[in-house]
Amino acid sequence: MMDLFRKLFSNKRAEKSSYINVFPSLQKNKEYIQNQLFHSSDLKWRSIRFNQLSGLIVFFESLSDQQRIQNEIIRPLEEKKEGNVDAIIASVDIAKKSDLSQLPQSLVQGNCVLLFEGTAEAYIVGMAAENKRNIVEPENEGAIRGAHDGFIEHLITNLYLVRKRIENPSLVVRYYQVGKATKTKLALLYMQNLANPDLVEEVDQRLGSIVMDTTISPGFIAEMIEDNPSSLFPQILFTERPDRAVAHLMEGRVVILSDGDATAQILPVTFFAFYQSPDDYHSRWIVGSFIRLLRLVSFIIASLVPALYIAIIGFHPEILPVNLIFTVKSSIDKVPFPPILEALLMQITLEVLREAGVRLPSRVGQTIGIVGGLVIGESVVRAGLISYPMVIVVALTAISSFVAPSNEISTATRILGFPLMILAAMFGLIGIMFGILFILIHLCKLESFGTAYFAPVMPLRIKDLKDTFTRFPIWSLNQRPHDPHPKRVNQERYSRGWVHDDPEKE
Amino acid sequence: MILKKSKITQGQLMFFVIQSQVGVGILSLPNKLQATAKGGAWISSLIAGLAVQVIILILWALCRRFPSDTIYSFLPKITGNFLGKLLGFAYIVYFLFSVSTILSFFADVVGKWVLQTTPRWALLILTLFTCAYLAKENLRVIARLFVISSFTIIVIVILSLFGYAHTNITYIFPIMEAGWGEIIKASNAALFPLVGYEVILVIYPFVEGKSIGKLKAASLGSLVIILLYTFEVFTSLIIFSPEVMPVISEPLLYMLKGFSFQIIQRIDLIFLSLWIFIISTATVSWLYMATTGLGHFFHRGEHKKAVPYAVFIVFILAMIAQDPAITDLYDRMIKIFHYTFVIGLPLILLIFSYLLRKRGA
Question: B4-355 has which fold?
Fold first, then answer.
């Protein structure tokens, strides 16, 4: 409590004392800026004469575009010699400041500062250099059909990608600055006519209340604003695909983009959003439905199959037909470990292999394939340490978990398997059922930004189920999903106008 | 007074009633009814259902007079502060007792059918831990889960439909073998497996909408359960001959054990696994009723704080009930409790509140 007071107090004091007028003396100003920036080596200045006054252009060579400074500031000023600075400088972004203490901050943002002898004002001209990579398809979120562009680390480009897709005045962008030290720029995007105002207000408030020094990955922001940070399930959808972000915007959700990161954060989302992929909507609806169902089934496989195997082998082998039991048992009898130990060993090996695969450069990556596939898969069984069925079970689990279109949920699924395995080893099928019940209760409890996480199943809303487990034809999805509580639920009544408009068809 | 967050819809009320009612009884009911009513056992369960509807009407009429009060807060308004609080505590005891009876029966069945060597305490802890995790949530979250877990009932019906491959309809004849007197006597026994509808005493004020809609929802929920029970009793009656019935205590499980699919040989295990959902939801429902009371008296309405020790009491009670003699005692006590707290007392209270013209704001 005392600390808090002290902090508040010191903050106020710092603010009060911070205002300094720009000195009329050029030398003094220069000294002040240099001292404030600790004589950093990449701080450059160039003197200039204008209106018979000696002036100074200050900028960071690492941050500002020197070509532009030359073309847009120095050349016009040298040519005209006299006149109004505002009119002569050919730049979009120009401002006058009389507060000297603000100059270092605008310098580190890539601006260029213009000072004149005898003038107590400074011009700040936006001259930030733009070094950005090309727009490419995100590697970890590929799609077969549809758009192949992805977000990059440049906020303005990302905004462009979204705005280009929604050419609508209702799309609103709000900027935030997070991180006391790093001053990371965030952009909050939403559709004014769709997004629930309460939701926008809540997100706005939470973003505004973030207090921290450093903001690096989007995970930082996600952890700062999500409702249940200790849950295993991700509650904010990360994506690098603009089409995915746009689709969610049009459902009345909110997107957060951050400068310096290619990931968009979509919220609030439900569990099922993690299993939807833009590909579903590009293929025919029956195919799309089939594939989506497959993904959800693979979620169940990935989290349940090892546990089921352990329960059946350890507790209820009689549930299987006799022939099958003999086949499985003959392989297991040679193994010295109980099934739970086998499963844990194999699962952990798998996780290690996966992690190694991510870290290794692709040229060495092949080694992992050989080590993983041959040594661990084949030899471990030959040596009699692990049984064949267990290898199959673990392999199936791994493959199923990677089906999920979102990496966050795929990892969560595999971790979910561990407690279920332990329960299965202790209580058999009964244990698994309690585990499932526990997970269901947890999912039922989770709410993010006022939206139930497991909607539309819990709470049940039959209409929204059309686009949950399956994907109904797009023309039958006349309502937006209800879970983000959009302002307008109905989208349109008849998408296929010709079916109803054509009287001669009768 | 009641937060928007803890309000539930009438549809959710229906599922709440359903989930509170289906419990352990479904397994042993056919056996119990057949013992007295013979071939007319299914009629007994229908009659019991009718009686339940009447009781629901009484409970509803009582709750309707106090639209924003749970039983714990309207009892003192009718009977005066001291007696009202005493009765409130009696209800809490009744609810806690019911939970432990359900759980001890559950532990018995699971111990007999699935986990023969697992210690009882381990099973109880697992169950109670899971249930407490849900019971400490607000009503809306609980209702959400209840809606979803009701789908298990459909699966259970489908599983029992497989039994119709080996039926013999003549087993139920003569229907009137035992006579009306016995059938009605049996329906008395069928009242106990149907308990759970008294949940409306506690959750009535949390339901949105008009009182008549609430009555409809509660009645519909109990109707679904009565039909389910009657269906299961009927199925058991035409599958097992009258001679076999008395020896098998859980006819449904025996029936399912008898047949098998291509890859799954033991359907009864699948059934029991699904049954866990039903047991847990019933447990949660009773726990919620009890803890709401405890919360009302000790924690200024925060039922969450009462959950840990309520669960502990239930655990102790369920651990005691291992001996058949004690189980029997529990059974008899539950019967008395049930008559007094669900039928007798509400009726008296209703009459009193009419006579004294007491009603809530």
Answer: Amino acid/polyamine transporter I (1.20.1740)
